[in-house]
Amino acid sequence: MRTQVAIIGAGPSGLLLGQLLYKAGIDNIIIEQRSADYVLGRIRAGVLEQVTVDLLKQAGADKRMNEEGLPHDGIELLFKGKRHRIDLNGLTGGKRVMVYGQTEVTRDLMEVRAQEGLTTVYEASHVQPVDFESDKPKVRYEKDGQVHEIECDFIAGCDGFHGICRASAPQDKIKTFEKVYPFGWLGLLSDTPPVSHELIYANTERGFALCSQRSATRSRYYLQVPLTDKVEDWSDEAFWEELKKRLDPEARANLVTGPSLEKSIAPLRSFVTEPMRFGRMFLAGDAAHIVPPTGAKGLNLAASDVGYLSQAFVEYYKEQSEAGIDRYSEQCLRRVWKAERFSWWMTSMLHNFPGEGEFNTKVQEAELDYIVHSEAGSTSLAENYVGLPLV
Ligand code: FAD
Ligand code: DHB
User: Fold this and answer.
1) What is the pTM (predicted TM-score) of this model?
2) Does residue 230 lie within any of the structural domains?
3) In a domain, 379, yes or no
4) Ligand 1 pocket, 220 CB below 6 A?
5) Is 201 an annotated catalytic residue?
6) 163 in ligand 1 pocket by Cβ < 6 Å?
7) The domain containing residue 324 runs over which residues?
8) Rounded Cα gap, residues 227 and 229, in angstroms
9) How far apart, in whole angstroms, are the C-alpha atoms of residue 199 and residue 370?
């Protein structure tokens, strides 16, 4: 088999890249180690920046998002028992975010790909990028007991944090930067109406909490938990009781509880790989970087990476120019590091850090007080939250 771009991984970055390339007339095949249902079963991000919304439109996968997504003009910060609104729209000259789940984004991208009859190989094992430092790269994999090889011009490593692409990069040419946080997020999805119209990010003495949503009838909540906790330790009742304790009286009174549809714990990590290109292999999304979820940036960074990468391939094939692919890593990393900084800052300001003591708590409260009462402070949060412009 031969294609122009072989994409490893059918998460949001691989599927979006595939669709953007197809729209630009560039051939691609996606190789994914799991089944489509498994990929769709992972409940993750929920907030899309305008840049991501625009790319989904460009990919022709925006119909259901436009009908069912929830545009949000603000968020609320809860600390010292009171909520304060950040007017995202007013502070950014009219920008907003779209609340629409990663599962739905993935499903929409899978559907348009299937409609166009494009090839995705699911349940491929032993996937391996080969010869990417030559001008004849290949992807090798096994399926139904047989070894297959795809010859290509380029490999896109869209295979997430635990993928094979970053792991295959030459060790003397790669540098990684990492920060691991001493807690995780326990998430719960339920068919209950959201506690409030807008998202609430709460700093409390019992730890961080986030009230998010997927629709008028489906909610997503998160609690900061110790890394040692297991999902099995948390009954639905225990989750709701703890969440109530971390809310303000009005939200507590409004909270509708119900059985969980899904519950999982995610560790929090900051991680960046430099560079994001190794010869003819390009890393994108979680394969190259991880942010703690507090700033809602993971999925959005994955989308902006593949926005840059698709543009670079268009320049290569349509204008015979390598300028885009040569610029790719540096261009992405400038944006990535700003999102890393924002996500680290939101995480530092909103969580309870074991062992940091009361001085840390007082500084967090002062910072939150400054952010909500200073236009400069609120604007800085707002412009990062809605997403910095592409450069
Ligand atoms: P992924 O979604 O990880 O997709 C990579 C794909 O590659 C997967 O389908 C995987 O099966 C496949 N793959 C892996 N290895 C191979 C291989 N060897 N061969 C072939 N295929 C392979 N972000 C937020 O903004 N908010 C959140 O609340 C949030 N929660 C999260 C919770 C968890 C548990 C995790 C892991 C991430 C969370 N994120 C969140 C981050 C966000 O979901 C990711 O940034 C986003 O999924 C990145 O998309 P991706 O396509 O780059 O990677
Ligand atoms: C969601 C997740 C986040 O990390 C975040 O900051 C906002 C919303 C969510 O899953 O809805």
Assistant:
1) 0.97
2) no
3) no
4) no
5) yes
6) yes
7) 1-69+98-177+268-351
8) 6
9) 20
